[in-house]
Amino acid sequence: MKRPWPLRHLGLKLLSLMLAVLLWMTVAGEETVERGLRVPLELQQFPSGLEIVGDVPATVDVRVRGGSSVLSRLGAGDVVGVLDLRTARPGQRLFTMTAEQVRVPFGVEVVQIVPAAIAMAFEQTASRRVKVVPAVEGHPAPGYVAGAASADPPAVEIVGPESAVKRATEAMTEPVSVSGAHEPVREVVSIGMVDPALRLKAPRPATVTVQILPAPLERTVRHRPVRLRNLAPTLSAEATPTSVDVTLRGNRDALNRMVPDDVMPFVDVSGLGAGDYTLTAHASASQDAGVVRIEPSSVKVRITSAKR
Question: Fewer Cβ neighbours under 10 Å: the N or C end of the chain?
Fold first, then answer.
């Protein structure tokens, strides 16, 4: 004989009732608390053809109320402010923040939002082409100067708020270093805008080429004594001739600042024993001037054992 429907699965029904009563007693007896949270602000339904001008708050302060256990379990992203911008128009606009615009878990009530209203300014989206200006840093090798710098592409299309687009005159590249260079430098770098409100319509890199040219002026420093470098302590040596002329290349300021003592001709005798040698002459100078030539270009060196 079948039991009447209300009596079917009576044990499970009683267990469910007991669990519901226990849950109700737990919630009813739980302390209600309030907590202040700083939560992210999401912008939704942004109209096409509009740009935000100026800064927009990335977060809002929200005060919520609920059971202590519920609030203690709140994690990042559980509470989010949502601002609907579908009604935005060009100009200054004020958007009111209400409890309905804060997304919260079940059992959590929004008590207060700070700020209660958010002011925002909008402009029409505009675009135009501007030239790409290569950024160059560093100094070429002594005796060389940085010449013309070019970028490929030479111009890009930028997009942003109308007023910012009108002010913009150029896009910049990531700096290209020419430090120590004595031949043209070619490098692929990023293109960007100084104004953060602006962006490239089609982001792409630029190939920057910097010409490295010989410095325009020369100066000859005459009769500079030749030094012998790295001579073993048990040896002695003498050079013929004892002095050389050194011709330097640089810009006018660098050459005018130079004094003869800045120019030091030398020959390297490291690892050489007693004997006669013909060695190439070298010279060091300031970092702003390069050595073009040394006359004579080679020096005869006689190395002998040192007297004890």
Answer: N
